[in-house]
Design a protein that fits this description.
This protein is α/β, with parallel strands linked by helices and about 550 residues long. It has 18 helices and 14 strands. It has a 5-stranded mixed beta sheet with strand order 2-1-3-11-4. Strands 8-5-9 form a 3-stranded antiparallel beta sheet. Helix 2 links the parallel strand 1 and strand 2. The two termini are about 35 Å apart.
Length: about 550
């Protein structure tokens, strides 16, 4: 990403982390007709790793450790042979975590991308705060009014999403399934794990996933603050509590949390090795994480941390963006965010402190786990159209999915050299004043299509090495949500209401307003109102996909 203003970068961080209160003990969209059970399943697109991207300095692993680049590639490759467009106008719509961009007529970044793609782009940009409301209107509208390309953001529940996709979107199976994807080399470079976590609808492939790294919700630390308070490798939950207490003094708090995060729910639940929303047994039975005793223990542990005074007092009301400001100014020593937020963490803390991804603590002698993220950060669908039009739109997405180290990737992520960025001493692009406002955050092309993400921090090779080493330690202990990529009619229609039931009780217990004894009653109510039906439906879809 280009170097942006601090506020722009902080505003974009939500794009890589939706705070982790149980989402599967939560909602989605779709009914039995969009289930994969009993359907002939379209083969996933054949994965063809690119041979054009520069070799990484730090190797990736099959288990999920990312490729790392300690320096920006000196010789960029060309990954697309010809201009994909035909001069026509393409209407697109995505979520945004930035500020509204300057209009196309006065935006040189926008113009450069249009020229490279060979189309005119009419862009509808929806702020994160308005996404659910706007999408409800779009989904209820007529087919002719739909944009050509639509980003389906995974951070929110869209009721009956599966039915909308099946009814209104182009079935991409003939274009992308199996070897058919070879016509789009950059899309073929997207790993199978991203397609799998996106999932099929009624056995068919309707979207293109936005690939994301395996680590999900991560506890980011002010490393010196925690080290000075006694943090060591191999710490236990008791050690964590002691360090958090010691690092808290006056108006400085060791632990920060944002509204809706459940006081760092993802990190602490995974450290207790609780299922991330859903676990599946060897016989295919689905078990809800909220009913697991380890999850309940993680709630009790956070309640203890809050009671001892280690959490920022406004943890039930502060926004994620404002919490990031508190983290950078030293008011809080840690915060939960997506792993992908490492870039603004390192860039904006430079000269102030060194951030670090926390290793999980052990509980009762058992090493802690980390959150395994959904490997698809939403997906992109296409409006139903003639074959030639669909192929043109896929060529555009293929361009946008260019790999790191390519000329196409640099244009889409940094803009035009000399206009939007200059080169640093190590060759890394550095945003100009214009690049601070004309960029891929405010014109979020990255949410239409993107190649596999890599580890890279401009001008900070040691940060890349530290992140790569951290991934090597924690990836083997990642706790995956077994429901990713699966359909459940009940989850899709009732999950939001059921999620709120759990979230309210969880937050109340940790904040000290509700006794821990209320948790079991809430889970029983959740199960009776639809949780057990979700388990049955996920199990059927899981059986169909295995």
């Amino acid at each position: 990403m280009p170097r942006m203003s601090r506020r722009t970068l902080l505003g974009s961080m939500a794009a890589v982390a939706v705070p982790g209160v149980l989402t599967a003990c939560s909602t989605g969209s779709g009914d039995s007709d969009v289930s994969n059970a009993g359907k002939k399943l379209a083969p996933w697109p054949a994965h063809r790793p690119t041979t054009k991207a520069p070799k990484p300095d730090l190797a990736p692993t099959e288990a999920g450790v990312q490729a790392g680049y300690t320096a920006y590639p000196a010789d960029l490759v060309q990954s697309v042979a010809r201009t994909p467009g035909d001069g026509s106008t393409v209407k697109v719509m995505t979520v945004s975590f930035g500020v509204p961009p300057k209009p196309a007529s006065a935006n040189r970044f926008w113009a450069a991308v249009e020229k490279a793609l060979g189309v005119k782009i009419e862009y509808t940009i929806i702020s994160q705060a308005d996404y659910q409301k706007k999408m409800a209107t779009v989904m209820a509208g007529d087919a002719d009014s739909l944009p050509d390309i639509i980003n389906m953001f995974s951070g929110f529940v869209l009721p009956r999403e599966g039915q909308f996709v099946q009814r209104r979107a182009e079935d991409l199976t003939p274009f992308l399934s199996g070897e058919a994807i070879a016509d789009y080399p950059n899309l073929a470079n997207i790993p199978t794990h991203a397609w799998r976590d996106m999932g099929r609808v009624g056995g068919r492939i309707y979207g293109i996933p936005l690939e994301r790294p395996l680590p999900g919700s991560t506890l980011w630390l002010n490393q010196a603050m925690f080290s000075d308070a006694g943090m060591t490798d191999g710490w236990t939950s008791d050690d964590f509590a002691a360090v958090a207490k010691k690092a808290t003094s006056g108006r400085t708090y060791a632990l920060g949390a944002a509204q809706g995060s459940g006081f760092g729910n993802g990190f602490h639940a995974a450290a207790h090795n609780a299922p991330q929303d859903w676990a599946v047994t060897k016989d295919g039975t689905f078990l809800p994480g909220c009913a697991d005793e380890r999850y309940k223990a993680s709630i009790a542990f956070r309640a203890h941390l809050r009671k001892q005074g280690s959490f920022y007092p406004d943890s039930t009301s502060v926004s994620q963006i404002d919490l990031s400001t508190l983290f950078l100014n030293g008011t809080v020593g840690s915060m939960q965010d997506g792993f992908g937020a490492y870039l603004p963490k390192y860039l904006d803390s430079a000269g102030k402190f060194t951030p670090a991804a926390a290793l999980p603590y052990a509980v009762d002698g058992t090493p802690g786990g980390v959150v395994a993220a959904r490997r698809s950060f939403g997906y992109t669908i296409l409006k139903k159209a003639k074959k030639e039009r669909v192929e043109l739109l896929l060529r555009i997405l293929d361009y946008l999915a260019a790999p790191f180290g390519s000329k196409e990737w640099e244009l889409v992520h940094y803009g035009v050299e000399g206009t939007h960025f200059t080169r640093g001493k190590d060759g890394s692009p550095e945003a100009t004043e214009l690049g601070e406002v004309e960029n891929n955050t405010n014109l979020p092309l990255k949410y239409l299509a993107e190649g596999p993400q890599v580890l890279f921090v401009p001008g900070m090779p040691d940060a890349v090495r530290a992140l790569h080493a951290w991934q090597q330690q924690v990836v083997p202990h990642a706790v995956r949500n077994a429901s990713y990529g699966l359909q459940s009619a009940t989850n899709n229609s009732q999950g939001a209401t059921l999620k709120a039931l759990l979230d309210d009780t969880l937050t109340g217990i940790i904040a000290g307003r509700i006794p821990l004894t209320e948790w079991d009653a809430t889970v029983k109510k959740w199960r009776g109102r639809g949780g057990d039906r979700m388990a049955e439906e996920f199990a059927k879809d899981y059986a169909a996909n295995t």
